[in-house]
Design a protein that fits this description.
binds manganese (II) ion, Rossmann fold, 542 residues, 7-stranded mixed β-sheet, oxidoreductase activity, acting on the CH-OH group of donors, NAD or NADP as acceptor, Hemocyanin, N-terminal domain, 22 helices, NAD binding, globular, binds (2S)-2-hydroxybutanedioic acid, metal-binding, alpha/beta, NAD, binds nicotinamide-adenine-dinucleotide, Aminoacid_DH-like_N_sf, 5-stranded parallel β-sheet
Amino acid sequence: MKKGYALLNDPFLNKGTAFTETEREQYGLVGILPPTVQSLEEQASQVYANVEKKPNVTEKRHYLMNIFSRNRTLFFRVFKEHIAEFMPIVYDPGIAESIRGYSEFFVTPQNAAYLSIVHPEQMETAIRNAAEGRDIDLIVVTDAEAILGIGDWGTNGVSISVGKLMVYTAAAGLDPARVLPVVLDAGTNRESLLQDPLYLGLHEKRVTGTAYDDFVDRFVALVEGMFPHLYLHFEDFGRSHAAKILNRYVDRYPVFNDDIEGTGIISLAGILGALRISGEALKDQTYLCFGAGTAGCGIAHRIYQEMLDQGLTEKEARQKFYLVDRQGLLFEDMDDLTPEQKPFARKRSEFADASHLTTLEAAVKVIHPTILVGTSTQSGAFTETIVKEMASHTKRPIIFPLSNPTELAEARASDLIAWTEGRALVATGIPSKPVEYKGVTYEIGQANNALIYPGLGLGVIASGAKLLTDRMISVAAHSIGGIVDPTKPGAAVLPPVTQLDRFSETVAAAVAAEAKKEGLNRNEVNDPDACIKAYKWEPQYK
Ligand SMILES: NC(=O)c1ccc[n+]([C@@H]2O[C@H](COP(=O)([O-])OP(=O)(O)OC[C@H]3O[C@@H](n4cnc5c(N)ncnc54)[C@H](O)[C@@H]3O)[C@@H](O)[C@H]2O)c1
Ligand SMILES: O=C(O)C[C@H](O)C(=O)O
Ligand SMILES: [Mn+2]
């Protein structure tokens, strides 16, 4: 048992001023804390009041991360209570700025593991040091090549691993002492970091090819060996690695790629919610993906699977999809398509003049999409002209500008509602305020994978699922339907973040039940709800 300053400096055990007089005597704390003993409730309301006084997101985040680094229980007590208010501060979009300034403002490593491609022999030691004897159920790992839409940030990207894990705990009650944030430092191609003497990562260009694959392989084999029930979450890998890595391990271990699968699930859930409002069927939709990278293709794949589940043949389903990327509409004769784009690429012969379909605007004019999803990192790409053109061919256009952070979104919710006179069914990647338009209040759902990965992870971990299967992913997407009342004018297509805590349990129970159905559970799942509730960690002092 730790004592004295070692105890105060352990964020998983520290209670600060809440150590009782008996505990202070027992653990060598007499005289090294101010004399008044506070309750967790008193500490939490003090923290909240202080956050409210801070003038901007940067200072709020800085203050909260300080609490996080000192005392996890207190941090999560406050975060959980104010989840909708704090998400944009500690997570996206607030996290983007702190990733850019990570090296410059570095104070503490926040219990993360930093793994370097030039020292593979240190990998095991690094993980052991970071875990400090704790059993780990969940790792979020990034190589930071494609952080949100802001690109390659090398070691600075460790904050996304820390941030995603914070949401797991606040939303789904994953025990913060049983998680480990990891960054794989394989170099960076961002010239400004390479030139920056303050940059704390490897000052080398990214390593690729076999050396990179071996580095990832070594990492996965190592952590799977060290933590036998581990659920491994991959975050913000680059377009050329994300799907490849997922495919390499998906049939062997319970692994998850958030940008592909998490975004796929939440977008499907949003589209199902939108169709519940419009009363239309998925099989009648025409889907246009703008920005066919990791997330864009992940979403298209999920919607495609749903169409198959609803009875369309592969050929029928494929006919519903169009992908637009940098080249314009993607055609099968292009030699630079990714493996994920290929199944959805079209034939030029389908169009009278395919050669001019090189922009989103030209594609929308010819294709008449009913669903438009943006994962392009192109700020403002859904222009008034494009949106009005789309809306002139469909009653309830479904439009999801999903790029993060705020400044990269393809459109603002308020513009989409106004340009379509309230007809658009909108969800955004970042939180959006409700939109007032002609006497109706339009609630805007947040199609961010943070609304789904915590519940999904809780379901996998609590059931001890050996794998994360396509069916488990599908039930997760379906489980959050029915929370929103589609008959209410201006209803959102997704449930609000204020209820994240509650619907994460719903998602988790559905996933655990499916794991059992497939015979993949290693823990008992007799009653899925009870199994989930029993697993959850609550922010209380022990
Ligand atoms: N809301 C969410 O939950 C969520 C989840 C994942 C990703 N995202 C966002 O989606 C965006 C993309 O992320 P990603 O991981 O898929 O990145 P990515 O690099 O894999 O994909 C981006 C794609 O956009 C394409 N693109 C770039 N410029 C373009 C242009 N001018 N016209 C058309 N296409 C263009 C790229 O070629 C690439 O294929 C980011 O902003 C990210 O924040 C949101
Ligand atoms: O992190 C987010 O906000 C969502 C997503 O994973 C992203 O990469 O943008
Ligand atoms: Mn991401």
